[in-house]
Amino acid sequence: MRALAFALPALALIPILAVFNAGSKPAPPTDARAVAAFATVQKVFQHPRCQNCHIPGDSPLQFDAGLPHAMGVVRGPEGKGAAGLPCSTCHGEANLPASYGANAPPGAPHWQLPPPQHKMAWIGLPAPKLCAMIKDKSSNGGRDFAALIKHVSEDKLVLWGWAPGGAREPVPVPHPQFMEAFKTWADAGGPCPRQ
To answer: Which pLDDT tens digit goes with each residue over 23-33?
Structure first.
């Protein structure tokens, strides 16, 4: 009987401990929270630093106004420019020093456009279509959410958007804030806005 008297208070603690343990795990993002986070993702993807190379045609754009690239530059068969005029002719591994002038060609490792079979062209796309395209493996180069997160968090050409050099405006959303929004959206399975 005495053992039972000690066991009853211990059993009463189980629901209390369960409540405390449940509170220690982060709640998975809700669809509404993830869709709201996607608005930040859209703002970044459709900024000139990103969309000037994510084009529907084969000629990249430049400057904040999205003007056609000078010198007749084209995507080429691999996204690295035409034979005889690869992107690396003008775009080096890093931005040129300020002494070259405000409009000197920018640079980052592996400067290129997406390849023609995965253009990821999102200029002017409404949020639902942009959302669907980003997570569609047939259009994004076969990337699942883990690979997408790695791409937008580590790829030096992507990161260039936050340090574009010259007179170019960087992506307006700080990279950590963008990554938080992207992960919130991805962790919820990438729900898309309805309109």
So the answer is: 555 555 679 99
